Amino acid sequence: RESAAKRTQLMRGLEPVQQLLMLGFIPDEADADVWADFGTLANGKVEIRLSKVQTIVGENALGRGLFACQDFACNDIITVYGGELITDDEARVRRDARGSQSHRYLMRISDSDYLVDGWQYASGVSETPGEHGVFLPTKAHATQFSQGAGPMANHDIGLGANCHISYVPLARSEAFQLFPRVPTLRAIREIKAGEEIKFNYGSALPFCPQPSLSVTAAAEGADASTEDAGEYLELSRYWSDLEWEAVGVDAGVLRVALSDLRTAAAELARYREKHEALQRVVKLLEPIPSDCPLAAEASRLFETLRELADRVHRNVSSVLHKETGKDPRHAESEQGRQQQSFKEELQAMRQIMKERHQALRAGAAADAAPPALSDSGDAADDGAAPDGADADGAPASKR
Questions:
Q1: pLDDT class for 304, splitting at 50, 70, 90?
Q2: Is residue 253 within a helix (H) or strand (E), and if so which, with residue range?
Q3: Are 115 and 91 in contact (CB under 8 A)?
Q4: Which pLDDT score, from 0 to 100, does residue 271 have?
Q5: Cα(first)–Cα(last) distance of the chain, in Å?
Q6: What tens digit of pLDDT does each residue of 158-209 get?
Q7: pTM given for the model
Q8: pLDDT digits (tens, 9 = 90+) for 78-91
């Protein structure tokens, strides 16, 4: 654990990021066109109301929630995940502190050793609604008015989420390339005024417990092969987010989409949700060229996606065959026609996945990078995980 003096020195060097996260103050070094317009309680673009999500996350019943007060277009930054910027060691201390709620709000900043403690924000917001059912900060001049209100957004498994975590550099200048990026909530579709802001926590909140895929799958009756597929629907930790961005892929968005797919894959009969989740991941992987260093990793993902699509196709075909056996007129019914149409859509998607997998694998074989060397010094088999990388890329904690 670092000394208090070293921690103070580190935080002092990151003061511009801390100012934005903890005070809502936009430092002179920041890109004004990016940060001048994010939603806060002060500018009235978002507000805190009683959540409409009727669920329980772990031991905690949901209460307050974040709501849009204006329309947001797809890809708009809604707000910042405000709070205190801290180190990984400090996060673990706060997680274990008696009476602390930090473990529910700690947001890991992707591709860095820092986290944002959103409890600094949430603890300053009243737990009793005021006029018109709006929750306000407990103090008249609290920083919560000007900070990003992201910590008040609740969790959704993905299919009902309307935004995702996006990590944005404070400034595009070279001097800020090594600074931790700022976590923001970015719309993944058009959001209307009055809608609750929800995102899939995935593993962004590293100390929030979540049920394992295998337990969920067993409870829903999914077969073992579906559980196995979920293990491989993770990004390898070998590749940094910056390397994904270099080929036009937002790694944070891709992780959320893969998390949504794992959730849908664990459900036995949610074929349409599986199909939509598959489509999202395939679309996100489209920009990756076959001659780039990430080709082998993308090829692995496409192979796993195709295997999952094959299983869904077989399941739908089996259901259609079974229902038609019971009633020959089922194929002509509305449900039968929908099942047949769904089969055809899946078949087209399977073909796209197959072609992409083959092209990426061929590219990786022709110019494998990074080269994985065996003990003898020879190059490892094409498509194998690089030395030191996880085969499934599963994170040690949550993201």
A1: confident
A2: helix 251-265
A3: yes
A4: 67
A5: 22
A6: 567 889 888 888 888 877 878 889 999 999 889 999 999 998 876 566 655 4
A7: 0.55
A8: 999 999 999 888 88
3-class DSSP state for residue 379? strand
Q: What are phi and psi for residue 286, nearest 5 degrees?
A: -55, -40
**222-234 burial: b if 16+ Cβ within 10 Å, else e:** beeebbbbbebbb
In this structure, the number of other CB atoms found within 10 A of the CB of residue 351 comes to 12
- φ/ψ of residue 87, rounded to 5: -85, 170
Amino acid at 326: K
Token pair listed for 149: 């209100």
Strand spans (E) along the chain: 46-50, 56-57, 60-61, 64-68, 77-80, 84-87, 106-108, 114-117, 154-155, 163-168, 182-187, 196-199
Structure tokens at 238: 């070998």
Strand partners, 197: 66
Rounded to an integer, what distance in angstroms lies between the CA atom of residue 300 and that of residue 211?
25
Cα–Cα distance measured from residue 152 to residue 150, given in angstroms and rounded to the nearest whole number: 5
Please, which residues have CB within 8 angstroms of residue 294's CB and are 6 or more apart in sequence? 239, 243, 244, 247, 288
**Whole-angstrom distance, CA of residue 385 vs CA of residue 368:** 11
Structure tokens of 108?
A: 């890991």
What CA–CA distance (Å, rounded) separates 39 from 49?
A: 15
pLDDT at residue 226 greater than cutoff 80: no
With both helix axes pointing from N to C terminus, report the angle between 271-285 and 334-366 in degrees, rounded to the nearest 10.
30
Instruction: Tally the C-alpha atoms within 13 A of residue 157's C-alpha that lie toward its C-beta.
Output: 18
- Give the CA dihedral 305, 311, 314, 320, nearest 10 degrees: -100
Model pLDDT, residue 124:
93
pLDDT for 150 beyond 70:
yes
Asked if 40 contacts 79 with a C-beta cutoff of 8 angstroms, the reply is yes
Place of tokens 């905690």: 60
In the predicted model, is pLDDT for residue 348 greater than 50? yes
Instruction: Return the SS3 of 191.
Output: strand
Omega before residue 386 within 30° of 0, cis: no
pLDDT digits 0-9 by tens, 364-394 = 776 554 444 444 444 444 444 444 344 333 3
Give me the helices (H) in 81-239, please.
88-96, 119-122, 213-220, 224-231
SS3 184: strand
